[in-house]
Amino acid sequence: MRQPSVIARRVAAASVSLVLAAGVAACAGPKDNDGAGSGGDGKAAKGGTLTVLNSQPQVDFDPARLYTSGGGNVPSLVFRTLTTRNREDGAKGSEVVPDLATDLGKSSKNATVWTYTLKKGLTYEDGSPITSADIKYGIERSFAGELSGGAPYLRDWLIGGDKYAGPYKDKGKGLDSIETPDERTIVFHLNKPEGEFPYLATQTQFTPVPKSKDKGTKYEEHPVSSGPYKVVRNENDGERLVLERNKHWSATTDPERKAYPDKIDVRSGLDSSVINQRLSSGQGADAAAVTTDTNLGPAELAKVTGDKELASRVGTGHFGYTNYLAFNPKVKPFDDPKVRQAISYAVDRSSVVNAAGGSSLAEPATTYLPNQKSFGYTKYDHFPAGKSGNPKKAKELLKEAGHKDGLTITLTHSNAKDFETSPEIATALQDALKKAGIKVKLQGLEDNDYKDKVHSATSEPGLFLAHWGADWPSGGPFLAPIFDGRQIVKDGANFNTGFLDDKSVNTEIDEINKLTDLDAAAKRWGALDKKIGEQALTVPLFHPVYKRLYGKDVKNIVISDWTGVLDISQVAVK
What percent of the chain has pLDDT over 70? Predict the structure, then answer.
């Protein structure tokens, strides 16, 4: 059984940090800077202050409470974990690599026991040694109710995790499923095979926390650093976060983080237009500034295109994310596969891409899995609609389904602007389906009402706009939550929108989870995606593209396919 909150948090994290700027008109983007090369003049060197301008405050700066993976951005400057992501551009950045551990872990034959050995010479910001017991304690405190918010996979995966309440209530007793036979060894006992455990070990819950320094909910004010920087100021719960060098950090044990700037000043809670204007102007400290959560919108991209200097300062990123139409087969007429297929043929992806901001901000999708190798992407198009839809084929299928005179349906979407379920995208779909004789009534809801409605098994509408992002670059956290029948939740947040409960699909998910060969697993995730796609339970629409400005004095731009955003652990300033 899986915890409903696992999936709810997954979507919440994606929704907060990966907002896509939506617009009405398509626009051409600047010449892509896909992370290769540097901004400014000269080579990357140590020194200076990097400013980070973000919309979302870095709230709850406690490794137990953060929902991050792959050693993301600001948190990974302070918190090291057993594993992390490879800090390289593009597809190479989708690989998982050791961090505090010497390797990706050694698993038992059935992938239910994972053993890690820590590197020698690891220390905190005060020079004291990092031990396996600290990692065990850091994980255990993430189970405490007062420190909720992090990715709770371990509650589901660890033996006894579903009953453990954390060290504050369960004083003196920890999780028996985590063993620390010596100061450098930690062993995890799982209740089911999980070949992707090395990916999970990138989560901030695997950050070491010295028990003697734990201050519960106040720990976030000054968490003890295991990374290249330490917290010296935390104002208004992460609205402003100032980091300075941790003199006890050793690059010898940490080849992934470059730690070029002497100081990093994170300023959040800013309006997106203000952020882009400040990065564009580059006055004062803003010349050495970046953003990790604010995209350029269509109008801003059009302006940038006409300015050669600005165009050279745009980083392009891709993240494992898919926007799609979701069907509820329990609601007529979507219980008929031919109706679902007809709608799949009728969709005009060109108009949808335009509504999402244009080809610079969105790529058309015909597969549910993102078009990246690490996910196991397997090219297919079961219901080829071309660039602008195939209304003729759609009408033929509707006639076969008994709707020769067409039909009327309702499409539910969020009224929130600058989001993947925007009214503009809904209107583009309405216009396309009209050509196939399908009249679409739009039901726009306030964002909270929309989420409540579409994530409830009892109120889920027949057709609605949806989106999904993965916690790590694999088909597992992408396909299982949406298509594993055992993850259907009747009395909580449900994300298996098509209510698929296919024994062969469930079994294949279990078999893939046993694989520790991640490349072999990826191929099978791709094959499973293709198989599920034949049932037309979703209509993939597009994969977002992230375009972000950086300051003119910023160098060493690295944007991986794991996060799709600029990696500030690699950045240098002039």
Answer: 91
For the record, the structure tokens of 2 come out as 């899986």
Cβ count within 10 A of residue 351? 20
What gap in Å lies between CA 528 and CA 520, rounded to an integer? 13
Q: Is the peptide bond before 333 cis (omega within 30 degrees of 0)?
A: yes
Average pLDDT over residues 431-440: 98
In the structure encoding, which two tokens stand for residue 462, read together? 């027949």
* Residue 422 pLDDT: 80
Alpha helices in 190-316 (DSSP H): 197-200, 272-281, 298-305, 308-311
- Alpha carbon distance, N-terminus to C-terminus of the chain: 52
- 525-566 pLDDT per residue, tens: 999 999 999 999 999 999 999 999 999 999 999 999 999 999
Tokens 């896509």 sit at which residue? 20
H-assigned helices in 235-390: 272-281, 298-305, 308-311, 337-346, 349-355
Helix residue ranges, H only, 324-464: 337-346, 349-355, 391-400, 423-434, 447-454
How confident is the model over 6-44, as pLDDT tens digits?
333 333 333 333 333 333 233 333 334 444 444 444 578
Residues whose CB is less than 8 angstroms from the CB of residue 500 and which lie 6 or more positions away in sequence, other chains included: 483, 485, 532, 535, 537
Whole-number Cα distances in Å, 143 to 149, 162, 167, 339, 439 = 10, 9, 8, 45, 49
At 269, the amino acid letter reads: G
Residue 5 in this model has a pLDDT that exceeds 70: no
Sequence-ordered list of residues with C-beta below 8 angstroms from that of 312, at least 6 positions apart, any chain:
30, 31, 33, 39
What one-character DSSP code corresponds to residue 94? Answer: G
Quote the pLDDT of residue 231: 97
Give the CATH fold of the 321-546 domain. Dipeptide-binding Protein; domain 3 (3.10.105)
Q: Where are the domains of the chain?
A: 61-227, 321-546
Given the candidates 2.60.40.10, 3.30.300.30, 3.40.190.10, 1.20.120.790, the CATH classification of the domain at 61-227 is: 3.40.190.10
61-227 and 321-546: same fold? no
- Are 407 and 333 in contact, with CB atoms under 8 Å apart? yes
Tens-place pLDDT, residues 68-104: 754 458 999 999 999 999 999 999 999 999 999 999 9
